[in-house]
Amino acid sequence: MTEHSKISRDNxxxxxxFERADALFGLGAIGPAAVPRNLPQPARKVxxxxxxxxxxxxxxxxxxxxxEPAAPPAAAPEATPEPQPVAFSGPFQTVPRDHLRNEGxxxxxxxxxxxxxxxxxxxxxLLADARSTDDPxxxxxxxxxxxSGEGKTYCATNLxxxxxxxxxxxxxxxxxxxxxxxxCSRLGIEGGAGLMDALADPAITPESLVITxxxxxxxxxxxxxxxxxxxxxxxxxxxxxxxxxLTRAAPRRVLVFDTPPALAASPAAELAAHVGxxxxxxRADETSRAALEDAQQLLSACADIKLxxxxxxxxxxxxxxxxxxxxxx
Length: 329
Description:
By secondary structure, the protein is an alpha/beta fold. It has helices at 17-25, 97-102, 114-131, 152-164, 183-187, 195-200, 230-235, 237-247, 267-271, 289-298; strands at residues 92-93, 140-144, 170-175, 211-213, 218-221, 253-258, 277-283, 305-310.
């Protein structure tokens, strides 16, 4: 028989620290701490609902957020209408051809004369300078002289008739000699209201005072009613507005001004600022050099001053104009 020996407790494994603590303090209920009920709730994540399923071949669904509507296209600016030339609307008068002949002026339908050839040369240079620039002032030509009796009205009238013979231009002869107007009497037509009336009264349109003549392309603006404030009217800003109206949008219109003598009255100097070319008429063997230089100084507001020798009895080059051939039927 096998002898059983008693196992001594002294050989047993000693209790652990937790076991001894449990025996002394009753820690059998130790476990994870309960979660407090008043803890803040976590924020809920908002999830967009899934897009609805579309049938095969259907158009794609629009985006969740519609794009901002496109701004409407800006309206195209309205085209500014081009200004139209001012049409002359004054009375119509016939220029007596016999009167032109008696005055020694160019007669439009008559055979070519030496006088016409001479003014053809003058007008060619003036037209060449007017066409070489875009400046509308170049189509305004002032005709003046230092003193009276040197032929400035005679030359201005012949120049206007010669210019009117051009096929592509029209000529307005302006009588700006408000002291002694004589353009209408030279042409044998009746004068009336004119330049000074338009300057004195802004309600008067200058084109309504322009006389249409039976010479193709030739128009005349009389000097009008003068008064003791003529110089002040010519020096006013309204003068520029009146002249601009007569040449506005009319690149084929040429203005020729017959003005008082530069050394006798002020209108020539005032108008010189409104023109692009000036023709200073001097009389051979009569006009002094001092008078010529003084007149040139008074017209210095015009950048282009040309000299026209009138009543010359000879040409230094020996050139002279005469008849050539017979006039055609």
